Amino acid sequence: METLKYVGMDVHKETIVSAVLNARGKLVMQSVIETKAQAVRDFIQGLRGTIHVTCEEGTPAAWRYDLLRPVVAKVVVCDPRKNALLLAGNKGDRVDAHKLAQLLRAELLTPVYHGTHGTRTLKELARSYTALLEDCTRVMNRLKALYRARAIPCTGEGVYQKEERTRWLRKLTEPGARHRAEWLYEELAPLVALRDTAREAMVAESRKHPAHPLRQSIAGLGPVRVAHLIAALDRPHRFRTKRQLWAYSGLAVTTKSSADYRMRNGELPKARRARATRGLNPNYNRTLKHVFKDAALLASARGR
After folding, report:
1. 20 in any annotated domain
2. Hey, what's the torsion of the CAs at 94, 96, 102, 104, to 10 degrees?
3. Higher-scoring residue by pLDDT: 219, 278
4. 224: buried, middle or exposed (CB in 10 Å: 19+, 13-18, 0-12)?
5. Domain boundary among 81, 105, 129
6. Residue 110 within any structural domain of the chain
7. Over the stretch 170-200, which tens digit does the pLDDT of each residue have?
8. How far apart are CA 208 and CA 105, in angstroms?
9. Among 1, 62, 236, 287, which one is least packed by beta carbons within 10 Å?
10. Cα angle 92-93-96, degrees, rounded to a multiple of 5
11. Is 88 helix (H, G, I), strand (E, B) or coil?
């Protein structure tokens, strides 16, 4: 047991502050290292025994997980929103690293899943497509807002079509508004081309996954939704039960109850009062919820 060590890492852009606890919870080391792969490996390899490491989820969390996983016994990338202990008392890098190590030793951390490299390419392509789709939507909304601000009806998608742009630009009599619309059209054209290219690459990558044909056969799931589904789920077997998958997708019903037992004749029977429902769980994967909701709406509209 003495060889077991718990390492809490408070990671920043340039430095990583680490606290090392032994199996009894005693602080045996604190260190500040540079945020570089070789420095992290040298620090871990300098520790003897079985090493458990934790750090908080963030932008470089996947890089840290891939770096640490081969050289330690256990890596926990934890959800910072659920680390209430870090908000209590003094705040500082050394203090936070020490508290993370304590939470790791007590097994009070909520881990964030970081899977294998099997779907890493698809995940990046899905993120690229989503970002380009949002950029296109943003420019389209600005275009329509420009016309609506001048009481020019612009329902439908004709305002975005390349062959219709000259006709729509004639409706703008103000030189400033016309120039702004021209620049928005020039911005939209390459974004649409990049969005279509990213969608094709994402769908082509998702077809390499063995689960693609099965998921494509489900009503309401087209090639784009299937690609997002595979990228978000990675491996469905990482969920112990279906209830965990529903909660991760934002489809679990939240219930509240109080005073569940009453004293009656010296006994404690459970109250028959029904639990009050409070909607669906608020903490979920947004991509999965959109995929399942949109698929359900499309399937119901088609009567399937």
Report:
1. yes
2. -120
3. 219
4. middle
5. 105
6. no
7. 999 899 999 999 999 999 999 999 999 999 9
8. 40
9. 1
10. 80
11. coil
**SS3 state of residue 145:** helix
Q: Which residues pair with 53 in a beta bridge?
A: 7, 75
- Residue-level length of the chain: 304
When divided into structural domains, the chain yields a total of 3
Average pLDDT taken over every residue of the chain: 89
Q: What is the pTM of this model?
A: 0.79
Tokens matching residue 143? 């275009």
What's the CATH code of the domain at 72?
3.30.420.40
**pLDDT (tens digit, 9 = 90+) per residue, 213-264?**
888 888 888 899 999 999 988 877 888 888 888 888 888 888 877 777 777 7
pLDDT 10s digits, 101-145: 999 999 999 888 887 667 889 999 999 999 999 999 999 999 999
d(CA 177, CA 171) in angstroms, rounded, equals: 10
> Residue 153, SS3?
coil
Residues 124 and 40 in one domain: no
Report yes or no on 216 lying in a domain: no
Domain containing 125 equals 118-206
Residues 164 and 122 in one domain: yes
- Contacting residues for 14 by C-beta, under 8 A, at least 6 apart: 34, 35
Bridge partners, residue 283, by sequence: none
